[in-house]
Amino acid sequence: MDLLAPYRVLDLTDVRGQIAGMMLGDLGADVVRVEPADGSAARQVGPLLEEGPESERSLSFAAYNRNKRSVVLDFATEEGRARFLELARGADFVLDSGPPSLLDEAGLDHAMLLEANPQLVHVRVTPFGSDGPAADWPAADLTLAALAGSMSLQGDRDRAPLRLSVPQAWRHAGSEAAVAAMVGHARARTTGKGVFIDVSAQSALTWTMLNGLTAEPIQGFDYERNAAKLQIGPKDLELAHPAKDGHVVTLITTESFKKLTPILLEAGTIDEAFLAREDWDSYSQRIFSNGELKVSLQELDATVDSYLETKTKRELFLPGLEKGLTIAPVMTLDDMLTFEQLEDRAYFHEVELPGGGSARTPGPFARSSLQPFEIERRAPRLGEHTDEILRELDAAPRERTPLRESTPVPEYPLEGLKVADFSWVGVGPISGKYLADHGANVIRIESSVKADNLRTAGPYKDDQRGWNRSQFFGEFNTSKRSLTVDMKHERSREITGRLIEWADVILESFTPGAVDRLGIGYEAARAANPSVVMVSTCLMGQTGRIANMAGYGYHAAAVAGFFDLTGWPDRPPVGPWNAYTDTVAPRFLTTTLLAALDHRRRTGEGQHIDLGQMEAALHFLAPELLARQTTDLEITRNGNRSRDAAPQGAYPCAGEDEWLAIAVEDDAQWAALRRTLGDPEWARDPKLETVAGRLAAHDAIDAELAAWTRERKPREAMAVLVDAGVPAGHVQRSSDLQNDPQYAQRGFYRHFDHAEMGRIPYSGHQFRISGYDNGPRHASPLIGGDSFEVLAEELGFEAEEVADLVASGLVN
User: Fold this and answer.
1) 204 neighbors 586 (Cβ within 8 angstroms)
2) What is the DSSP letter of 378?
3) Distance CA 225, CA 160 (A)
4) Residue 113: closest CA among 136, 69, 81
5) 603: exposed, middle or buried (C-beta count within 10 Å: 0-12, 13-18, 19+)?
6) Would you place residue 408 in the very low, low, confident or very high pLDDT band (cuts 50, 70, 90)?
7) Options 582, 598, 740, 786, the catalytic residue
8) CA–CA separation, 146 vs 117, rounded Å?
């Protein structure tokens, strides 16, 4: 795709953010990776090929640096710094990461970049943000997961809380940086001035808490980890079930059990006497209301499991879909490489690796009706394009199109953008929230017959149920207005037709084909509004043999491999918290959508974007997918341990279920840990001076560290360790995050008055933009609370017409 073809990106990131440049490069930007003579530190990050030049062995680098060129500059010299500033004069974006950053080490700060290029968008990715009491703390994937809150929700209750066994922190932060870059570009374009954007990896990971984000201040208590169970109201429902060759993910409720009933009867798993024991029509309702169950959840699960464990994942998955059942296979990395749906959509692309050979890598995270996706360049070899880029610079310095300040300057960068948000639950609404929070006029179209599922899920204000009391819905729908329409009403097109004509953007997340049946598909929309940009997002994309798979983010997490990668090696997988991929896909969707809108601004062209949530999420496993094809590495759930460093784990502290994550990543940090502990005799064993020795003795080291942490409160132990340069993090809950000094100083939580819930906290943004206070603009809407205003003021209905629409039952 060449949606961003006019723009140049200078990428100075290490592993902390390199996916951002890949995303912009995949969308057509000219991404130049600027490296020192010994190469970016990202080139040393595993998994590694066993052979080849040292600078070309990293599969992480291979995965996240395609569609980029590499130039080597010596930042220690005046000439090298001058050359970089020459490049910056013709660039639109600079991406870097720290501390320390390559720019800092070269003595180049943001002010100097702006002096060279007053319209530059400079995005920096750091562990905790560029200011605040934790700004200079050492950090690792594990300790960020702890401090962000996600670890507190993952794992078995009788063991330590867990991170996902594959590093995720910098992939979240980097993809968030791509969103931030596009928002910053819109800001620079409306003000005529460059911006500095400060991305916090901690904040990016906090968003993976989903309904746990503000659970404690809303409902009065924290959610707790409980293996692979989904908390619905007062009950914990099992998600993971055994299959003959692994596990599957499905939720046993009234609807799913009714579809399973004929299968279970035919197999002899149940009989009519079993069915007669329970009123199955009201079973789910009694789960939600904590009513009496004559067949307990445990008995029902055990009964269903006795059937599921006789079938393979494949035997359950495809036949289940034919019956309207989503029994998602917990897929391994190897499973995904041969997954039929991905083959149908020609998803994987064969790419040359910088060190030689080739492998299949994740392909398009989104597809456009205008242009095909291409991997035009494999990841570059170190300095591969130095001569080419410097010749271009000497021949004709790149000219940028001057930005013109809007008059008057809008308060928010996306003011004037009109969005009809027909999506529901997670990915679509979160993407719409990005737009709304940054100034877009987003109308959330909701059913007047059946509320969004998130309105019927907690946390509820004061733990009292109600469609307007759910902060699960609230967190994903700030800064929007709500219009209720019965989409199946015979007169629904009277409203949807005007919405299509009104909108610049249409968001929808229905099952493929549903929007066409409702008369709001892309062809109908384009006929009425040729420049409209429409985004369709669902689990598997709009095409392929299982495109119609219905489900939620936890189903996608199972099929996309994340479920299998979370847990202990001696126990079944527990999966990440809730709908994990619902926090991954919106970043790819929003970046693509903002690129499409920029393309429309320049060309007048609209388009249809197809984003399969699994396909986007698989980019967070790209290095590991490459490793399974090119190395002998076994990549599966491994508790909190690393393959490459030790010790790493979560250790018990003084207090009720309190834990401290500690992650030693190199020999220097091991020496610092020894000093902090008082250099005890056990730590002086010469075998522990190497990573290999510490990995071999991990159990013994863990026992010693646990003895030390048990005597200390988590934040006290953390303070001692980080002061010594050892990455450490208190495993924080929602209640802890409300009082996190870093979040307090950076103003992460925003408080708004909600029409029914009163004054409540909302989670803020993962990045800050210079020049204005970006964050949610107002509380989430009441269901249908803005219907009259939207119909009259936005869509042009007269008062009498609105009254008629209400009387007809079309609008509530």
Assistant:
1) no
2) P
3) 10
4) 81
5) exposed
6) confident
7) 582
8) 39
Full strand arrangement of the beta sheet holding 240-243: 240-243, 246-249, 328-329
Task: Compute how many other C-beta atoms are within 10 angstroms of the C-beta atom of residue 512.
Answer: 17
Query: In this structure, how many other beta carbons lie within 10 angstroms of the beta carbon of residue 510?
Result: 21
The CA–CA distances, whole Å, from 733 to 343, 659, 747 equal: 40, 11, 18
Non-local (6+) Cβ contacts of 664 within 8 A are 645, 646, 647, 648, 670, 673, 694, 726, 727
Among residues 446, 526, 456, 449, the alpha carbon closest in space to that of 480 is found at 446
Q: 698: how many CB neighbours lie within 10 A of its CB?
A: 15
Q: Which of 127, 134, 133 is nearest to 206 (CA)?
A: 127
Are the C-beta atoms of 209 and 748 separated by less than 8 Å? no
Q: Could you confirm whether 582 is annotated as catalytic?
A: yes
pTM of the model: 0.97
The model's pLDDT over 623-657, given as tens digits with 9 standing for 90+, comes to: 999 999 999 999 999 999 999 999 999 999 999 99
Which positions ≥6 away from 556 have C-beta within 8 Å?
A: 328, 539, 579, 580, 581, 582, 613, 614, 617
Compute the distance between CA of residue 28 and CA of residue 7 in angstroms, rounded to an integer.
8
DSSP 761-797: EEE--SEEETTS--S--SPPPPTTTTHHHIIIIIS--
Within 8 A by CB and 6+ apart from 371, the residues are 1, 2, 3
277 C-beta neighbours (distance < 10 Å), count: 10
Instruction: Tell me if 249 sits within 8 A of 240, measured CB to CB.
Output: yes
Closest CA to 11 of 109, 104, 590, 20: 20
**What is d(CA 185, CA 199) in angstroms, rounded to the nearest whole number?**
15
For every residue of 673-717, which 3-state class applies, written as one string? HHHHCCCCHHHHCHHHHCHHHHHHCHHHHHHHHHHHHCCCCHHHH
The number of helix segments (H) and strand segments (E) in the chain equals: 34, 26
Q: Which residues contact 81 (CB under 8 A, 6 or more apart)?
A: 73, 75, 106, 107, 108
Who contacts 679 (Cβ-Cβ below 8 Å, separation ≥6)?
A: none
The H-or-E segment that residue 558 falls in is helix 553-559
What does DSSP assign to residue 440?
-
Query: Would you call 534 helix, strand, or coil by DSSP?
Result: strand
Name the phi and psi angles at 798, rounded to 5: -75, 160
Contacts of 573 (CB under 8 A, 6+ apart): 228, 240, 247, 330, 563, 564, 565, 566, 567, 637
Asked if the model's pLDDT at residue 406 lies above 70, the reply is no
Which among 197, 3, 219, 176 is positioned nearest to 94, based on CA atoms? 197
Name the CA radius of gyration of the chain, rounded.
26
Helix (H, G, I), strand (E, B) or coil at 420: strand
Yes or no: say if 664 and 726 are a contact pair by the CB < 8 Å rule: yes
In DSSP notation, 265-277 reads HHHTS--HHHHHT
Q: Tell me, what's the pLDDT at 354? A: 80
Q: For residue 85, how many other CB atoms are within 10 A of its CB?
A: 14
Rounded to whole angstroms, how far apart are CA atoms 542 and 537? 8
Q: Read out DSSP for 12-79?
A: ---TTTHHHHHHHHHTT-EEEEEE-TT--GGGGPSSB-SSS-GGG-BHHHHHH-TTEEEEE--TTSHH
Contacts by 798-803, CB closer than 8 A, 24 or more apart? none
Which residue, 443, 445, 431, 442, is CA-closest to 366? 431
Average pLDDT over the chain, rounded to whole?
A: 96
Burial 315-338 (b: 16+ CB within 10 A, else e): bbbeebbeeebbbbbbbbbebbbe
On whether the CB atoms of residues 247 and 238 are closer than 8 A, the answer is: no
Tell which phi-psi region holds residue 439, choosing left (phi > 0), alpha (psi between -120 and 50) or beta.
Answer: left
Task: Determine the straight-line distance between the first and last CA of the chain, rounded to whole angstroms.
Answer: 42
Structure tokens at 94: 């600079």
Of all residues in the chain, what percent carry a pLDDT higher than 70?
Answer: 99
801 Ramachandran zone, left/alpha/beta (phi>0; psi -120 to 50): alpha
